[in-house]
Amino acid sequence: MNKVYKIVVIIVVLMVSVGVSMGLSFGEAVAEKSVLRYTQAFPTNIDPAIGEDFSSTRALTVLYDTLVYPDEKGAPQPCIAKKWESSSDGKTWTFQLRSGIKFHDMTELTAKDVKFSMDRLITMGGGYAFLFVERIVSAEVVDDYTVRIHLKEPFGPFPYTLYRLYIVNKDLVTSNIKKPGPYGEHGDYGTEFLVTHDAGSGPYMVEQFRLEEYLLMKKFSNYWGRVAPNAPDEVKLIGTTEPVTVRTLMSRRELEISDQWQSLEALTALDKIKGVDIAKVPVGGMFYYMMNTKKPPLDDIHFRKAIAWAVDYDTVRNTIFPGFNQARGPIPHELPGFDPTVLQYHFDLTKALEELKRSKYFGKLDQYPVELHWVSEVPDEEKIALLIQADLDKIGINAKVIRDPWMVVVEYMARQETSPHLIIMSISADYPETGALLTSKYAPESASSVNQNEWLLDPKYDAMLKDALSTLNTEERYAKYAKLQHYIVDLCPTIFLVDTPSMHAYQSTYIDWPAARGEGIPVIGYELDARWIEVYPDKRAELLK
Amino acid sequence: MRTIKFIVKRLVYSVFVLVGLSILIFVIARVMPGHPARMALGARAPEWAVERLREEMHLNEPLYVQYYYWAKGALHGDFGMSLVTRRSVANDIKEFLPASLELALYAGIFMGIIGITLGTISGWYSNTWIDNLVRVISYIGIVTPSFVFAIFFVLIFSYALEIFPTMGRIAPDLIPPPRITGMITLDALITGNFAIFLDALKHLFLPAISLAMGPLAQEARITRSSINDNLKKDYIAAERSCGIPERTIMFKYLLKPSLIPTISIYGLDFASLLGNAFLIELIFNWPGLSRYGMNAMLRKDLNAMTAIILVFGLVFVIVNIIVDIIVEYLDPRIRLGVERGQ
After folding, report:
1. Is A371 on the interface with B (CB under 8 A)?
2. B277 inside domain
3. What stretches of A309-391 adopt beta strand conformation (E)?
4. Which of A96, A334, A373, B14 has its CA 20 to 30 A from that of A507?
5. Can you tell me the distance from the alpha carbon of A240 to that of B286, in angstroms, rounded to the nearest whole number?
6. Domain that includes residue A78, residue range
7. Which of A248, A406, A431, A452 to mutate to test the interface with B (most CBs of B within 10 A)?
């Protein structure tokens, strides 16, 4: 027995020794680097013809350049293109490119790369191709520094959509094409190469990409454009959103900006860390509770309006999303073209009952229960669903709350028959302009997508929208957008809940993030553009003492 | 010779098992709700692009035709393209499998050493306070999910005490060793880089111990129970009455037969570590196959799903063969029974 005891003690001592030696720092470099680290949900696709989610877009924005770049109001400013003009009929746009812009392999960016990028995006059909496929006829190389894009129809917001046309290095991609592939003579169009490499000219370039772990980007020393004086030397996108991991990294100053998927409770805990604050960054998004206007009882406008008046919006924005603005109509406040005169529904049970009594389903409510769906990957949505269920119960509407995984949502929203009664979704504008949301929310082509559960299919709306989008003059276009917003609110196909800024915990002591100060660019991807974020390693070192 | 025959026979049976498994998972993956081509291209991709991808993946063909294409590729080591990572599934497995194997290996070491040690102590000191303490620890270990341990360890050792790193396989400032096995600790040892070895071990410690907690508690209980049963056997009483020292009884006559059920369960537990590691890999941002597999399932990445299940199945088969060999070595009754059968 003594021998057994001794053996056990020896094993324990050995394990403790190994543990202690592992606790010591062996071979760790202590040099202070200027690095910006933020967490994101993986996968991150850095192929410009594939990536379109939050994570991918944030990486693409710094790896690649675009023809135009948004200012803090979202309006297009010169970038690769130093100037541009449209023909009088609005169908031809000519861009004059800057000379001397280098890709990361030091070859020059010219018009052929722009054409190649557009052709590649449209041919592959993924990523942000949906912004272009139905609009673009062709891209034409006029000369080395002039490219002309031909549209099928005049499209006023066209320059805004170019924030999503990331210019790739044609020669580099073509030399890394694998054949055979699904794109005929183009093989795989360089897809496999661009999984872990970039072919861009942006202020940062891929240093290392460990899939499922992190993407490390380093500053491109020959970048043609301006970057902030203290922009980080490295940017690291860490592929995790686990609250305990994020919190630990933040407290150890190994993370500068958290992802936007942290719950309210997690953000509250992060806010308590010394030197960490919470930023509310507008990205042109909103929470919509979308009503299927073709499914009884929601095919009745009065029934829908009854629901809209019955929702306790104050509880939504004070308790579930404290500090968020209640939405006013279908467009978030920060988007250019937003109309502040649109009716804003508010909690009013009297009005709700009045509308309900005018509905053809009044008196038969027990035969027409409604289902309130929410997406299981976004737990906060359940709180809203439960709140609305309780609100509807006050006016006699029987509502059931149903949770669906995202994969199932995508499938059943593809068809009108299987689309649910109501489903909540946070939707952001693809480019910072009201037309983006009016199209992605209510245009007929979005009816089978996750952006539109309403199945509006309203010919009058479609005609008004088409007319507005074809208007080249900005002020005239915005005036038409205003009419569309009033029209939609009158139809009431949606419950407009709250504007949804992107919420991030960040190290306010040693990073200066313009978006956190309210000076950000209200477009997904650009609000976290590392070239404008300044990092102060000495202040970080002070915090660590 | 006999062992070789046994291994060959088991491997032949395993082929049938794996084929059956591949058919099963192939069918299940395709009847699950979700539209893989649509998920891959994005909710607003044009219909013609979605249709092109469906054609490319043969999703418009009957199931048996789809299986034929898949099996033809699989026999050449080509499991198709991952819709999530956009590269070949074979490359993904090559990249992520070593990380998971490394994690499972160290978890397995913890499971074995700690579990068997605790179970032996508990069994030997049965019905004492030592036994009661070990049993309570075992119960807690069995009922508590591994991710709870993971979160607890991160909060204590990474957040509060800052002893261990929070995530990843290696410190960001260090250059990994040349890739030989893909397991950083082994590659560091092979290339003689002790500093990297220790750093990788430091990164491995919390995830491995979190993953091992449940199974090691089970090993402890089974070992304890087995020792208790064997202690009551006549041959132990006979040995004691002959004056054989307790130490000799323990290590020569008691431990070996008592480990037989433990080893059998150990094999199953070890094989399931790979599949159960998903939450651990998520919390520690560990780039392993389990996490890759879960993402494949959430996004209905058909090719990746099927390949991963096959890999896990293959691991189960290999581990079970090894366990059977070990059990046969430990229990001469099995060896003799087989010989007589011949």
Report:
1. no
2. yes
3. 370-375
4. A334
5. 10
6. 65-186
7. A248
Could you tell me if A426 and A370 lie in one domain? yes
Q: Are the Cβ atoms of A28 and B162 closer than 8 angstroms?
A: no
Q: What are the chain A neighbours of B278 within 8 Å (beta carbons)?
A: none
Kindly state the tokens that stand for A433. Answer: 């302009």
Amino acid B342: pLDDT: 45
Residue pair A277/A271 in contact by the 8 Å Cβ criterion: yes
Residue A290 falls within a domain, yes or no?
A: yes
- As for how many domains chain A has, the answer is 3
CB contact under 8 A, B87 and A52: no
**Helices and strands of chain A, counted as H and E runs:** 17, 19
For residue B126, what is the domain's CATH number?
1.10.3720.10
Which residues of chain B lie closer than 8 angstroms to A39, CB-CB?
A: none
Say yes or no for a CB contact (<8 Å) between A407 and B159: no
Of A125, A158, A186, the residue at which a domain comes to its end is A186
Best of B59, B285, B289, B292 to disrupt the A interface (most A CBs within 10 Å) is B285
Structural domain containing residue B225: 97-299+315-341
What CATH number corresponds to the domain at position A488? 3.10.105.10
Domain count of the fold of chain B:
1
> Do A378 and A401 share a structural domain?
yes
Instruction: Give pLDDT tens digits for B23-59.
Output: 998 888 888 877 888 888 887 888 899 899 888 888 8
Q: What secondary structure, in 3-state letters, does B51-74 show?
A: HHHHHHCCCCCCHHHHHHHHHHHH
| Closest A-chain CA to B120 | A4
d(C-alpha B152, C-alpha B159), whole Å? 10
pLDDT above 60 for A30: no
Chain A neighbours among B 219-278 (CB < 8 Å)? Answer: 246-247, 250
Residues of chain B short of pLDDT 50, as ranges, are 342
Q: Note whether A106 contacts B: Cβ–Cβ < 8 A.
A: no
Q: Between residues 65 and 94 of chain B, which touch chain A (CB distance below 8 Å)?
A: 84-88, 92
**Paired residues of A321 in beta bridges:** none
Q: In the structure, what pLDDT confidence band is assigned to residue A29 with cuts at 50, 70 and 90?
A: very low
Give yes or no for B42 touching A (CB within 8 A).
yes
| Residue A488, min C-alpha distance to chain B (Å) | 22
Share of chain A above pLDDT 70, in %: 94
DSSP B309: H
Is the domain of A325 the same as that of A261? no
Shared domain check, A165 and A293? no
CATH number at residue A238: 3.40.190.10
- Two tokens at B17? 């098992």
Q: Is A106 exposed, middle or buried (0-12, 13-18, 19+ CB in 10 A)?
A: exposed
> Tokens representing B70?
């898949």
CA quadruple B88, B94, B99, B100: dihedral positive or negative? positive
Interface with chain B: mutation pick from A135, A242, A290, highest number of B CBs within 10 Å: A242
Which of B167, B254, B284, B299 has the highest number of chain A CBs within 10 A, making it the mutation to test binding with A? B167
B79 within domain boundaries? no
Q: Does A242 touch chain B (CB under 8 A)?
A: yes
The predicted pLDDT at position A14 comes to: 58
Query: Does residue A521 sit at the B interface (CB-CB below 8 Å)?
Result: no
Question: Are the CB atoms for A514 and A530 separated by under 8 Å?
Answer: no
Tokens of residue A229, six digits: 């004086």
Q: Mean pLDDT across the stretch A399-428? A: 92
In A188-320 the beta strands, taken as DSSP E runs, fall at 204-210, 214-219, 234-238, 276-281, 285-291
Which pLDDT score is estimated for A516? Answer: 95
Average pLDDT value over all residues in chain B: 88
- Checking if the pLDDT of A31 tops 60, the result is no
CA–CA distance, B258 with B221 (Å, rounded to integer): 12
